[in-house]
C-alpha cells in the first residue's frame, strides 16, 4: 500500500536509515500462537550480515534483533509466542564510520538513487545512502523469519546461480553445498572459479552483477488469485523491490518465449497415492496466478554494485559536472547477500497469500 | 489491495467473465478535468481486439467501451471531461459461441489455471476460461487509455521483439513500422520471417512464446519511491499480472548480471540547455525505484498459449487420468495482443505514481 | 482505501451519478459458494426504493439489480452461487426527469455539497446532485444484500426511532410492526403521530431530521480488532458515510457520558448451558473493538433534507449573492429511506470483519 | 487498512503493549521539508501524560519521544526536518509496576476487552491491558504532533465539555481557560463543580463518563470526498477508535434530528473581502463529506473507566463465575486525557485528506 509497507494481511512496515541510531520493522497481521525462538531469527540475520567473508562489505554490524512487542515468552523462557498484535523489531546501527560526507553530499553517484532522490524530495540523508541503503534489507530478513513460521510446512531456500558470465552447472545442484561456501553456491565446482573471479574484481575496486534463484517447497495449492493478486505477481513485486534488482522470472521465465505449447505444458497424472502429480514444472509452481502445489521457483538479476573505485562522470546538486569515485566499504557483488533477502521476500509473499486464501475461501486449499 | 483492483491513487477495479453478459472496470481517482474522446479509447481497444489478423484468435468482438459514469460531455458534443468521480466502463460480450463445454468443464487443461482454480474456489466458470480468460485484459486497455491522459506529455509505446527463437535486430528498430504489420514488430525485416513461422505453428494447432518491450517517454523525473513503491516494482507487478507472463525486466534486466560496475554506470553531464543528461540508460529510466527522466524501458516474456490441438496428459475433477486437447479459437502467439496490454499496464503504473508523488511532495518533481 | 471503495476483504466499489445511464457496484472478495436469489436482493432494494409512500420522494425507479459477473446459476435456474470472482451489479436510472438545471447548475444549494464540491473539483455534475445524490445508496443496499449471506446466522434489522422531537416509546418496540408502516417504525402508537407530523412538513415544503437504530444479531464473538480495526470504528465510519448522517452511537452512546463505572459494567455469568451470559448490553455488543456475541446496537442521526421550498440565502459560482429554493421531488424526511441503507452498511462491516478474523485467527472465534 | 495502521497517505502504524519495553509508531507519507522541534512534540505528549493531577492515573511515565528515523537536524541543532522517509518514534515504558497479575490473568474484567480478546486470539498479554491499554494512545499523540505541521495554518484544539451530568455552559466558553485547569475545561465556572464531583468519584473508587469537543480551524475548503472518504467519516472512524469512545457527532450531531430544513441550512453570503461567508455552522464545517472552510467541529462520548473498586460479576477463562474488582492506578474519568488524543486523531485525519486532495486535484482547493 504505502511506500514503506508491503503485504495485505501479513503486513510489514520498515523504517530507518543507514546512519541513524537504528532501523527496524513492524509486522502486523501475524496470526496469534506462532512459536519461534530468537535464535531462529538471528540465524537468518547472520546469513545477510555484512563482514562474513572478504567478498562482502567489511562494515561490521551485529544485526541483533530486539523484539519490542507482540510476543510472550513461553514457560521454557526461550520460545516466543506471537499474540496477534503488531511485532516491532529493532536493529541498532553500530558501525557508522564517521567520515567526511562533504563530497558525496552534493555529488550524485552514477547508478545510485542520489539524483532521482534529490529531484523527488529536495532533501536527502546522504550518509551511507540514507533510506536507500541496503541496510534496510536487514528488516526484511527479520520479517521473513516470522513469515516462514506462519505457513505450516513451508521451506524456502535460495542460491546464487550466476556471477558475471559464470553460471553454475545445474546438474551439480546440491542444496547441502549452499551453506558450505561464502557465495550460497549450490555447485561445488563453481566455488573456486567465483573465488578467483571475485578476488580480481574486489582488488580492482570494481563490481559485478549476479543471478539468484529461490525455491519454495510446501506452498499450499490454491493460494494466490486469478487477476491482480497473482502469487507470481506479488513475488515479482517484492523481488523487484530489493535494491539493484533489474529482472525477475518465475519458472522457465524468459526461456518460455522459445517454447511451444506442447513443450511448455506441465502435464498431470494421478499418483499412486491418489494425489495429482505434475510431470514437469515449467510454470514454477504457479498457474493463472494460483499455486499448484509444486515448488515455487523464482529467479532475479542483480546489477553490479554502483559504488566503484573508478572515476565516473556525473553532476552535483549545483548543476556542475563532476567526476565521482566511491570510496568506502562495499560489496563487490551485492548478489551474494541478496540470497537471504530474496528468500525473505518470497516467504513474506507466501505468508500473505496463505492468510488471504484463508479469508476468502476459509483456507480450503 | 484487493484481488481485482490495482493502483493506489489511480485505482482500477476490473470485473467480468469471458462468457457473462459483459465485463468492465471502474477507474477511481482519476483527476477532474482530464479531457479525452471516445475515439481515443476505442483506437487502443482495437489494437487488442481479437480477429484482426489470421495470427490471433478468430473470436469476433467489437469491444466497444460504454462510459457509464464520471464524465461530462463538453460543448463540442464529443470531448469528454472527467469529473473526479469513478469512471465506470462496460464492454459487452457478443461472440460467446454456444458450444458444449461438457468435456473441459471437468477436465483440467494443462498449462491453464483450471486445476489450481478448482483447488482454490471449488467452483469454476469453465466457459472460455471464466475469470481467467484473457478477455479481462480488454478492461485494462480501457483503463490504460485514461491513464495516458493523466500524465501530461506521457507517451507509451510497445513492440513485439521476439517470437520463439526469432528475435528482432535492434539496429532495425523503427517505431513507424510497429503499426504497419500484424505483429507490432519494429523490425521490417523480421515481419516475413514471423509470418512464415507463425503460419506453420497456427496450422499445426500449436503455439509459441514471445517477448514484448514497452518504452515510456515523458515520465516525470522523481516519481516512484525508494523502498516498497519503487516505480519498477509496480511495473513488474502489473506486467506479471498479465496472463501468461513469466518474466519481467527493467532496463538491461538479466543482462545486468554480466555487467561490471563501470559498464553499468549511467554517467551524467550537464547539457547545453542547463539540464542534466544521462549518457546511457542501462537502468531503464529508474534508479533506486525513482524515475530519472530517461525513457522507462521494460520487457516481459509470455509463455506459449496453453490451448493447443495436440493431446496432453491431464486429470479431471473426479481424479481420473484424461487426455486433453483444446479445440476452439485461440491465439497461436498470445504475445502479439499482449503489446497493447503491456502499454496499458505501464501507463497505469506511471499515472498512479504521478498522483502519489503529487501527494507526498506536491509534485515538485 | 480509495474514495469510492470500502471494506478490506469484503470490498465494495460503487460508481454512478444520479442522472447518468446507470449506477452500480462491484463487490470483490465475496467467498465462493454463497447462495442467494435475485428476489432476496430485490426485496431489500424495494425497502429503499423511492415512491413507496407519500412520505418519500416521488421519483419512480424500479431499481432492478442486474448481476453481470461473479455468479453461476444453480440447477434450479433461480439460486445464484458466487464463484469468488468480483460481482458486478448494475441499476439503471430510468426516471431522470428532463428539467432545466440552469439555475442550480450555478447556484449553491445551502446544506448541500454543491459549494464544497465545486471548490474541490472545479467541475460538477449538478443534475440531481450528481455523485452526491442519495441514489448512490441503491448500490450499497445491493452490496449489503450479499454481505448478509456471507456470515452464517447473521440477522440485521433497522428501525426509525425518532422524527424531529417525536421519539418512539422503547417499551412498545415490536419488530413485527416495522414492515407494517411506511416509516419502519417499531412503535405502533407512534405511527399516526408521525403521519400527521410529516404530512404537515411535506405540505409546507419543509423537511425534518431523524434517528435510525440498527440491531445485528448473530454476530460471531471475536470479530473486530483492538486498535484501528475496531468493529465499532468501522461501523461508525460506514454509517457516517451515508449522506446527511451527523452522529453515530454504539450501545449506550452519548448516554454513556452520564453513567458510572458500576452502572456501565456489563456483568457476566455462566449460563445453564455452559455458555457465558452478559447480564446487560450497555456496550452494544462490542468491547475493546471486538464483538462479544451480544447483539450489536448502533444508532445514527440524519439531518433534515437540505432541499426545501423556502428560499434560503446563498451564493453562486460567479460569487454573487442569490436566494435559492429547491423545487422538485424530495424526501421530507430522508431518515426513512436511511433504514435499509444503515442495515446494509452494518451488514457489510460485519461481513468484512468476519473474513478478516478468518484470515488472522483462522476464524477460531 | 491493516489492524494497527490508519490513514491512506499520512499513514500511522502503532505498536506496543502496556508492559513491554516500549511502544511507538511509524509515520509514513509525511511530506519532506516539514520542520518541527522535539519540544513541540513533547508539549503535546505532556498533555496526555499520566500523573499530571489527582484526577488521572498515578502511573508515572516520562513519555519522552525518541525519533529514530526520517528526520535530519537543521543547522540550529534543534529544528528537525522531515526527509520524506518513514518517521519512527519510540516511547519507553518505565513505570511497569511489578505486581501479581495472577488473578486478572484468568478473570475477565467487566467492561474491558478481556473476554472478547480471549475469544478472538486465544492468547492475551493481560499485564495492564496489553495491547488494549490506553498507553497505545501515546503513540497517537506523537503522530498527531507531526500531522498538525503538515497542513499550513491548521489549528486543532479540544476541550472537555461534560463529566457525568455536569455540562459546561457554552456561553462561558473561553479557550484560554482550557490550559488553566486539570480538566481541559473551557468554562471556568464549571471547574470547581467538576473538582468536587470527581473527588467524590475518585475516593469511592468509582468512575464516570464524559464528552470531549474538538475544533479544527484552518481546514482547507475542498478536502474530503463525496462518498467513502468523507472527511467526517474518517474523523468518526478515528474518534471511535479511541478506547472507551461510544459516540461521535459532527456539527449539530444528534441535535440535527430535531431540526427543520430551514433551521439546519447554513446560509451563505459573499463577504466584503469577496470571499464566501457561512452565516452559521450547523454542518460542523463539512458538507457532503467535503470541508467548507468553516471550523470543523466534532464531539465524542467516552464511557466511564471500566476499572473500578466495586466488585462486579464476571467469569474466568475456565468458565467459572467470579467476582472481580480492579485494584491499581486508574483514571476516574478517562475523558480528561482523551482531549489531546481526540485532537491528535482529528489532526491526522485532516493531514491525510490534505495529501489526498493534493493527489487527486493537485491541491487546487
TrEMBL record, chains A, B, C, D:
InterPro entries reported for this sequence: Chorismate_synth, Chorismate_synth_AroC_sf, Chorismate_synthase_CS
Binding positions for FMN per the UniProt entry: 131-133, 243-244, 288, 303-307, 329
Biological-process GO terms, alphabetical: amino acid biosynthetic process; aromatic amino acid family biosynthetic process; chorismate biosynthetic process
Protein's pathway: Metabolic intermediate biosynthesis; chorismate biosynthesis; chorismate from D-erythrose 4-phosphate and phosphoenolpyruvate: step 7/7
Binding site for NADP(+): 48, 54
GO MF terms held by the record: chorismate synthase activity; FMN binding
Co-factor binding comment: Reduced FMN (FMNH(2)).
Record field: catalytic activity: 5-O-(1-carboxyvinyl)-3-phosphoshikimate = chorismate + phosphate
Keywords: Amino-acid biosynthesis, Aromatic amino acid biosynthesis, FAD, Flavoprotein, FMN, Lyase, NADP
One Gene Ontology CC term in the entry: cytosol
E.C. number: 4.2.3.5
PROSITE patterns, per database record: CHORISMATE_SYNTHASE_1, CHORISMATE_SYNTHASE_2, CHORISMATE_SYNTHASE_3
Co-factor(s): FMNH2
Top-rank lineage group of the source organism: Bacteria
Alphabetical list of Pfam families matching this protein: Chorismate_synt
Function (record text): This reaction introduces a second double bond into the aromatic ring system.
NCBIfam families for the chain: aroC (TIGR00033), PRK05382.1 (NF003793)
Stated family: Belongs to the chorismate synthase family.
Subunit structure, interactors included: Homotetramer.
The name this protein goes by in its record: Chorismate synthase
Organism: Rhizobium deserti
Lineage, opening ranks: Bacteria, Pseudomonadati, Pseudomonadota, Alphaproteobacteria, Hyphomicrobiales
Gene: aroC
